[in-house]
Write a structure and sequence with these properties.
Mean pLDDT: 90
CATH superfamily: (Glycosyl)asparaginase
Distance between the termini: 14 Å
Shape: globular
Strand order of the largest sheet: 4-3-2-6-5-1-11-12
């Protein structure tokens, strides 16, 4: 059994952007699935999938990431290996072309878990990374959104990307990458690089979250999801309960989304936001199955994923 699920962010995706978001998620899922099908590790698969999403200006990660109040790009990312709990993360790093690759370098280096801010570039340069030329990560759409909301203190995010996977050896991994919240204060760190909040993987579950970072941090969403699955809950049901709890506690503004895969190969892509982009590919020896789309509520999206669930 091998499987990968990716998300392109929960929030409000304008109708004109649906086709591009679906295509981007599908391409990223196929990129990661190719690694799995070739016998690769889940850790490499999620990195490959998220890298593809960071390269796609349709999403809020890498190229096209949202801008801070100062009109700059600051990136967060994390990648986690469920086999031994190793995690590498970076936060509020400016002008970083592929955040997930630097997060992987932190993981592989092993000295620290999280590096933040411009000082992270000292480590990055030692590992072969160079800053993107100023302004090259800023797209016309990101600049227009920043100008439209320049006077606001904060804004709803959307377009964060993530991937979770299980490989042929049963190893689980998760990765998440984001530009954060449009109009955020410089130096703000969201949920994506924080283990147990936006990103988590252990021997039982891999999960990546998307949505309002502060609410996800307060809920420690992905860690609690892993604990619920460990206690016997199905990933989709546990995710739905936790997301409903977030809304009950923090109101509609706390609506978020999460993707997950457990060691049995059960997958979930659940959200409590107007829309969420997703894609999934699974193979169990009888051929591969795939689904991709943008859901406007949880039921149709979960119905598509159920057809990929090996336990139904």
């Amino acid at each position: 059994m091998i499987a990968i699920v990716v998300h392109g962010g929960a929030g409000t995706i304008e109708l004109a952007r649906h086709a591009g978001a679906i295509a981007g998620c599908a391409a990223a899922a196929q990129r990661g699935f190719a690694r799995l099908a070739a016998g690769g590790a889940a850790l490499d698969a999620v990195q490959a999938a998220v890298r593809a999403l960071e390269d796609d200006p349709a999403f809020n990660a890498g190229v096209g990431a949202v801008l801070t109040r100062d009109g700059q790009v600051e990136l967060d990312a994390a990648i986690m290996d469920g086999v031994d709990g190793r995690i590498g993360a970076i936060a509020a790093v400016p002008d970083l072309r592929r955040p997930i690759d630097l997060a992987r370098a932190v993981l592989d280096d092993g000295e620290h878990v999280l590096l933040a801010g411009a000082a992270a570039w000292a480590f990055a340069r030692r590992h072969g990374h160079a800053p993107a030329p100023p302004g090259t990560l800023v797209t016309a759409r990101a600049l227009a959104r920043w100008r439209a909301r320049q006077a606001e203190v904060a804004s709803v995010g959307g377009g964060t990307v993530g991937a979770v996977a299980i490989d042929g050896a049963g190893r689980l991994a998760a990765a998440t990458s984001t530009g954060g919240v449009l109009g955020k204060r410089p130096g703000r760190v969201g949920d994506s690089p924080l283990p147990g909040c936006g990103t988590w993987a252990d021997r039982g579950l891999a999960a990546s979250a998307t949505g309002p970072g502060e609410a996800i941090i307060r809920a420690t969403l992905t860690r609690r999801l892993a604990l619920a699955v460990e206690a016997g809950a199905a990933p989709a049901a546990a995710a739905a309960a936790l997301l409903d709890e977030m809304i009950a506690t923090g109101g509609v503004a706390a609506g978020a989304g999460v993707i997950a895969v457990d060691r049995a190969g059960r997958i979930a892509a659940t959200h409590r936001t107007p829309t969420m982009a997703f894609a999934a590919v699974r193979a169990d020896g009888r051929g591969a199955q795939a689904a991709a789309g943008i859901s406007t509520n949880a039921a149709p999206l979960e119905a598509q994923l159920q057809r990929l669930d090996p336990l139904t």
